[in-house]
Amino acid sequence: QRKLFEYFLVVSLQKSKGGTQYMPEVTQQFPPKVSSRYLSSFTVLSTHPLSILLICYGHGGLELITADICEMFSFVLTGEDGSRRFGYCRRLLPSGKGKRLPEVYCIVSHLGCFNLFSKVLDEVERRRALSPALVQPFMRAIMEAQFPAPGRTITVKTFLPGSGTEVSELCRPSDSRLEHVNFECLFSCLSLRLLLRVFSSLLLERRVIFTADKLSTLSQCCHAMVALLYPFVWQHTYIPVLPSAMLDIVCTPTPFMVGLLSSSLPQLTELPLEELDDEDSILPPKLQSALENVLERRRDTVVSEAFVRFFVELVGHYPLFITGEREDGYSSSSSSPVPCSFQREGFRKAIPSKSVRRFLEVFMETQMFGWFIEERELHRQALRGTEVWQQAQVQIQVMDSLVQNSFSFLRTV
Question: What is the homologous superfamily of the domain 7-145 according to CATH?
Answer without folding.
Answer: Longin module (3.30.450.200)
